[in-house]
Adenine DNA glycosylase (Flammeovirga pacifica), 351 residues
Amino acid sequence: MDLASSLINWYESNKRDLPWRHTQDPYKIWLSEIILQQTRVQQGLPYYEKFVSNFPTVKDFAEADIDTILHLWQGLGYYSRARNMHVAAQQVIDQYNGHFPDNYKELLSLKGVGNYTAAAIASFAFREKVATVDGNVYRVLSRVFNIEEDIASGKGQKIFTEVANQLISENQPDIFNQALMEFGAIHCTPKQPKCETCPFVQSCESRLHQIIDQRPVKLKKVKVINQYLKYLLIEHDGKYLMKKRQEGDIWAGLFDFPLVITSEKEQSLSNGIILENTQLGINTKDIFFSSEPIKHLLSHRRLFIEFFHVKLQTLLDTQSDIFQYRWMDINEIQSVGKPIILENYLRKNIY
C-alpha cells in the first residue's frame, strides 16, 4: 500500500481552502500553527486574519505591545501561547536577523515551539522531510496500522513519530503532512469516520478487526476540578476597579476584577465573607445585585462564576501596599485584554 501517494491524491481532491496553505512564509505558517493549537479551524481563522492584518511581518509582531497582542487574542484561551509568541518573535529579530530558522532543529529554539510546530514550519515553509504528528495523525495511523500503544506515553509518541517519518513522501513532504492531518480532521474523524469512502478501506487493520472506536489508545484521563469564582464589579462614578494578572497565572497579562476563588464546599459563602476576603474594606450593604452562576469549561477546570455588583459612594484608598488595582472607565476596559468570560459578561451587562 502506497499510503503517501493515496493520501496526497485524496488531499488534492478534498482539502479545505485555507489562507495559510497559499504561502510558504514561515511567519504566517507559524502564526497559523500556534493559533490552531487546541483550537478548531473555524474558530481560529478570523484570529489568523486579524493578526496578519495587524502585524503583517514578524518585526511588526515583535515590536507590538503585549497588551495589544493579548487583547487581539481575547477569546482563544491558553493565553501563554500569545505571550510565548511575543518572545519568539523577538528571538527571530534579535537572534536570527529577522528571518525564521529554516530547519527543524533550530526552530525548536523558539519560545513555545515544540516538536509538532517545528516540524510544521520546517516542512510547510522549507520542505524539510520531517513528519508532523498531531492528534489527527495519531488517530489515522493508530487505525490504519492498529497501533495499540498509548498516545500519551513517551514510548507511544516515539513510535508514532517513527511510523510517520517512514511514510513521509520523499518529494512532497509538505503536501504529505498537510494531507495526513487533513485526512484525520475531516475524513477519519473521532466519531463517525467515513469508512465507506476511505482510500484505505480494504487495508485498515482497525476496521478489519472492527475496533475503530478503540483507536487511538489514550489511557491517562485529565482530572477536571470544580472552582467557584466570585467577581466583584466595584464601580464609582462610571469607573471600575481592575488589576492586571501577574506571571505564573493562566491569565497572566490580562485584566480582571477583584476576585475570590472558593472550593466546591465553600460555594455558598455569604456576601460579607466574600467582601472580607477581597481585603478592600467594602461593606456588605454596598452590594446591590449579583448574577446567576455562569458555567465555563477549561481543559482541567470546571468554573462556576458569579458577578457581584458594588456601587461605592466614596473612592477607596488606592495608596496602600495591598492595593494593586486601578480605576478604569468603559473605554479603557474595552481596550485591554480580558478573560473571555469577563468580556462576554461585560458586553451583555455593562458596555
